[in-house]
Amino acid sequence: FVTKFEEVVVECSGSKFCVATSAGTTGLHVALEAIGVSRNDLVILPSFTFIASANAIAYCGASPWLFDVSEESWTLDPAMLARHLASETEQKGEELIHKPTGKKVAAIMPVYTLGMPANMDEIVKIAKDYNLPIVADGAAALGATYKNNPSGKLGADLTVYSFNGNKVVTAGGGGAVVGTNKNLLRLVRHLSTTAKVGEDYHHDKIGFNYRMTNIAAAVGCAQLERLVEFVDKKRIIQET
Ligand SMILES: *Cc1c(COP(=O)(O)O)cnc(C)c1O
User: Fold this and answer.
1) Which protein residue's CA is at the shortest distance from atom 2 of ligand 1?
2) Which end of the chain has fewer CB within 10 Å, C or N?
3) Does any ligand 1 atom lie closer than 6 A to the CB of residue 23?
4) Measuring CA to CA, which residue among 16, 11, 7, 4 is closest to residue 181?
5) Band of residue 144 on the pLDDT scale cut at 50, 70, 90
6) Is 50 near ligand 1, meaning CB less than 6 Å away?
7) d(CA 90, CA 106)
8) pLDDT digits over 178-191, tens only?
């Protein structure tokens, strides 16, 4: 069922490739590892989120560089992001350095707060200006749209969903990483399946055992049939 689950998530997210994981948290961790976040780096993160986003950054040995959210959207404030990147960072060769700490800024992690996508047009533009990859924490945002685009198609390099029991749709527990770069998603799969090469228990990296179980995927497949119904209900709640 895992392969089937991944195919359905690709469809619902509007992305191209999907790797199912054991949780949203482990999906975030492996996504950051795959994008190249390493020890002592900084990852830009809105301060208003669930602890898992910051934990995943810490698992890489990196630290969150916290930014406030905008009052209207409760998501990462692009104006504040642009302002502080301009005043507090400098380019040194290939690396963007945070001047006050001397640390490398390695990625931006916007959070789609309570399922509502961040202002991605602005954030993607800023990310391009500074050549920063984006790993979006879309934990509760499967089925959501931004300017008519599904949440996995908003310009992030990787978008991570959670299928925990308190999200829009559940697999009992689980997560998923989606993206359009085949090689990057191949690396996510490799890292989340113990970085095993061939059939002889050779491993070429320190990998993780982050795969979704087949049982969770089966529950997820059944529940995903109701995604539209769940999102419709959430929209009604939001409007009333
Ligand atoms: C739920 C959630 C996570 C973590 O997902 P788990 O599947 O519980 O590990 C991460 N980020 C946000 C914003 C969440 O809401």
Assistant:
1) 139
2) C
3) yes
4) 16
5) very high
6) yes
7) 13
8) 999 999 999 999 99
Q: Which residues contact 232 (CB under 8 A, 6 or more apart)?
A: none
Does any ligand 1 atom lie closer than 6 A to the CB of residue 176? no
Distance between CA 67 and CA 89 in Å, rounded? Answer: 14
* Residue 140 Cβ contacting ligand 1 at under 6 Å: yes
Yes or no: say if 189 and 181 are a contact pair by the CB < 8 Å rule: no
Q: Evaluate the CA torsion angle 137, 141, 143, 145 in order and state its sign.
A: negative
Task: Tell me the average pLDDT of the chain.
Answer: 97
Torsion of CA 14, 20, 21, 22, to 10 degrees: 110
Contacts of 159 (CB under 8 A, 6+ apart): 13, 15, 135, 136, 138, 151, 152, 177, 178, 179
Write the DSSP string, 170-209.
Answer: -SSS-EEEEES-HHHHHHHHHHHBTTEETTTTEESS---B
Q: How far is the CA of 139 from the centre of ligand 1 (A)?
A: 5
pLDDT tens digits, 40-50: 999 999 999 99
105 Cβ closer than 6 Å to some ligand 1 atom:
no
pLDDT of residue 165: 95
Query: For residues 156 and 128, is the Cβ–Cβ distance under 8 A?
Result: no
With a CB cutoff of 8 Å and minimum separation 6, the contacts of 129 are 85
At 7, which helix (H) or strand (E)?
Answer: helix 2-13
Calculate how far, in angstroms, residue 66's C-alpha sits from the geometric centre of ligand 1.
Answer: 18
